[in-house]
Amino acid sequence: MADGFEEGLRGRPVCVAGLGVSGPPVARALLACGARVTVVDGRDDAASRRAAEELRAEGARVVLGSDALPEDTSLVVTSPGWRPDAPLLTAAAGAGIEVIGDVELAWRLKPADQVWLAVTGTNGKTTTVRMLEAMLRADGRDALAVGNVGTPIIEAVRPGPDGTCPQVLAVELSSFQLHWSSSVRPQAAAVLNLAPDHLDWHGGFDAYAEAKGRIYARGTVRVANTADEHSVRLASEGDPHTPLVGFGPGTPRPGELGVVEDLLVDRAFVDDPVHTAEELAALQDVRPAAPHQVANALAAAALARAAGAAPKAVREGLAAFGPEPHRIAPVATVDGVLYIDDSKATNAHAAGASLAAYEPVVWIAGGLLKGAEVDELVRSAAPRLRAAVLLGRDRAELRRALDEHAPEADVVEVAETGDDAMDRVVAEARALAREGDTVLLAPAAASMDMFTDYNARGDRFAEAVRRLRA
Fold it and tell me: In angstroms, rounded to a whole number, what is the distance separating the alpha carbons of residues 470 and 173?
């Protein structure tokens, strides 16, 4: 498939929509295939101009400050963040020009023998693909995690300096990427969970879920979270001729992975699932052993086992795995109070998973809620909350929910937004906490009202906590 598609790119006029993270590597891959590449981006700032000059030097045409479809285009490769109703994309659709994403392009260019194991979901994707990568490497595979984890997927399907590509890819896929993918067929795939997110982009929850469900393509082993009704539904709607493997927090039934006492156990990829089970790892091998982290480990294990990895590779992979920054990361213990940085909890679903792992909690929350409702989050977390410190633009909505559903919790609002705001937030949390409590940064909101991104928010939190010890 790659040879025929690549041959067809020679001399073909291709438009790359967007000069963001995926745009430049996509443009370079197309240039290497001999395509005539035009990159279009509505921005015209200093960073865009620098990237444009680099691509022009490599042979691409770059148009900044415009979203018009180039006249001679015969294929559009769009950046994931571009909405389907963007003028360039609607113009392409109206002209009958195919629009694909970077993942679809990578699939069409990949070596025929390269295996893809794919992960999507509202939360936990990056952690799961990193765990999966570690398990596969422990099994002796030449494996690489790609997607929103550092390596653009298009670079993993093109030969490196040694003329080879990774044998197996652990692929993180967003709903945006899946929307623009039509022929991607992973060997095995998992939907970790599903909660309302990116509804403004997709136009509603049903469309968001439909995009996620595209990961269960024809011929793909379906891995589903038995504790998430949406994951189970999407998997059940997949190809009925492929295995359906469940994972969840309880004792596994035949065809599932689960937990028995303090062990992660496989009753799916064994010779006799009805009468036998295989020990994969212990709960203590999952760091931290919070419920959602255990679920991520089970999902990664299911995908690794679907690819033929040995049971011991699961334990060894978990031992080698180090959690990504700002994901339920312990920062310090000060005066008997544990401080946890989960700045990556940018929506209610993720924050709820963090809150469920600790008790009692002084919760630091707030930022940009993006229209999401927080009542159910606060209602379920209320028994664990000692207090809350709220920051950011949409803190009033959180305050309303706390007043209604957690009236016993003390609440402090921090209106400051400057460089010292996080020091004030941490100081207020310290004053509210008691020995044995956890101060948890799990904002349930995006960060861009006050910080560059969630990484910067988490860094500021960690720095403020460390200053408490100075």
Answer: 42
Among 161, 279, 308, CA closest to 221: 308
d(CA 1, CA 53): 33
Listed in sequence order, the residues at least 6 apart from 70 whose beta carbon sits closer than 8 Å to its beta carbon are 13, 15, 38, 40, 61, 63
How many Cβ atoms sit within 10 Å of the Cβ of residue 241? 7
Measured distance CA(318)–CA(306) in Å, rounded: 17
Non-local (6+) Cβ contacts of 441 within 8 A are 339, 340, 341, 342, 343, 364, 457, 458, 461
* One pLDDT digit (tens) per residue for the chain, 470 residues: 466 899 999 999 999 999 988 999 999 999 999 999 999 999 999 989 999 999 999 999 999 999 899 999 999 999 988 889 999 999 999 999 999 999 999 999 999 999 999 999 988 999 999 999 999 999 999 999 998 777 889 999 998 888 899 999 999 999 889 989 999 999 999 999 998 666 666 667 888 898 899 999 999 999 999 999 999 999 999 999 999 999 999 999 999 999 999 999 999 999 999 999 999 999 999 988 889 899 999 999 999 999 999 999 999 999 999 877 898 889 999 999 999 999 999 999 899 989 998 999 999 999 999 888 899 999 999 999 999 999 999 999 999 999 999 999 999 999 999 989 999 999 999 999 999 999 999 999 999 999 999 999 999 999 999 999 86
Beta strand 143-146 pairing with 410-413 = unpaired
**Which residue's structure tokens are 């009704």?**
229
Cis ω before 360 (30° cut-off from 0): yes
Q: CA dist 305 to 95, 310, 338, Å?
A: 44, 7, 36
Place of tokens 């928010």: 457
